[in-house]
Design brief:
Length: 284
């Protein structure tokens, strides 16, 4: 009988623990499952809200834009797991906005507070996860798994195509409105280096020197760095093209994959992907 009561007590404790899964509790589980030691410093920290908040639903997104927060809150989600910043810079510093009573920031911050949202960033360690969580999701959506190099995961040997056709395929499979391309549209392509997000010009150049791809496909970069270099290469008649996918569309599939991954070890809580909308539209 005592044993039975003990069992009931334990079962009850487990049930109430599941009911009171907090934002911090979710993050602790992510840290335990991500497969790499937790490094510091990291940008993978809480950006807003109280970590002890009980979680009613998890919204996983590429970027915690105002639009994403509104849609997540409407769906009853109060823990937002975002790959990219919430407050417009890599470190999410808000002092300047606060000092200047910035109305855009104020409204976003108030929305988070009013809806008891908790925002946590999952950037560094999702890339450090092996294989890289972002790249894995993007490759899945591109259906490029069989083209991926075994030794250089960002390098792909694609069936012979042209720069124009490759750009169209990426635009269609990743669901992008605005894809910009540098280079000769009819250029033959068999190798592509994929660098989602904003890897930076140093990483882009390292990739070009190491892999010698026909095409580099990236999220974004300032227009006087990698873009100008590849424009010069094309103007010199060299065999090199660039596809600019945009930051959000270039990594978004990686956070959809993160949603699937979270479901492999988190239970008793709603987990859903809330895609960030592409900002850009084309002028007529
Ligand atoms: Zn990223």
């Amino acid at each position: 009988m005592l044993r039975y009561l003990g069992f009931l007590f334990l079962a009850g404790a487990a049930a109430s623990a599941a009911q009171t899964l907090t934002a911090n509790g979710v993050i602790e589980q992510i840290k335990a499952h991500v497969g790499v030691p937790w490094k510091t410093p990291t940008v993978d920290t809480f950006k807003a809200g109280d970590p002890s908040t009980p979680v009613t639903g998890i919204a996983v997104t590429m970027m915690a834009t105002y639009d994403v927060l509104v849609r997540a809150a409407a769906r009853g989600d109060n823990l937002i797991i975002t790959h990219e910043p919430t407050f417009y810079s890599h470190l999410d510093k808000t002092e300047e906005f606060d000092q200047n009573h910035d109305p855009v920031w104020q409204q976003k911050e108030k929305f988070i507070r009013d809806h008891h949202l908790v925002v946590w960033r999952f950037h560094d360690h999702w890339h450090m996860h092996r294989p890289d969580g972002i790249l894995t999701g993007v490759v899945q959506d591109l259906k490029w798994q069989s083209y991926q190099s075994k030794t250089e995961p960002e390098l792909f040997n694609v069936p012979p195509t042209t720069l124009a056709a490759l750009a169209s395929q990426m635009k269609q499979r990743l669901g992008i409105n605005v894809v910009r391309v540098v280079g000769d549209p009819s250029m033959k392509v068999t190798t592509v280096a994929l660098s989602p997000g904003a890897g930076g010009p140093e990483l882009h150049m390292q990739t070009l020197y190491r892999d010698h791809p026909d095409v580099l496909a990236i999220g974004e970069v300032p227009e006087w760095e990698t873009i100008e270099y590849i424009a010069d290469a094309a103007a010199e008649g060299r065999h090199l093209g660039l596809i600019l996918l945009g930051h959000i569309p270039s990594e978004q599939a990686g956070m959809e994959y993160c949603t699937t991954w979270l479901k492999t070890f988190l239970s008793g809580v709603k987990i859903e992907f809330v895609p960030a909308k592409e900002f850009f539209w084309l002028a007529k």
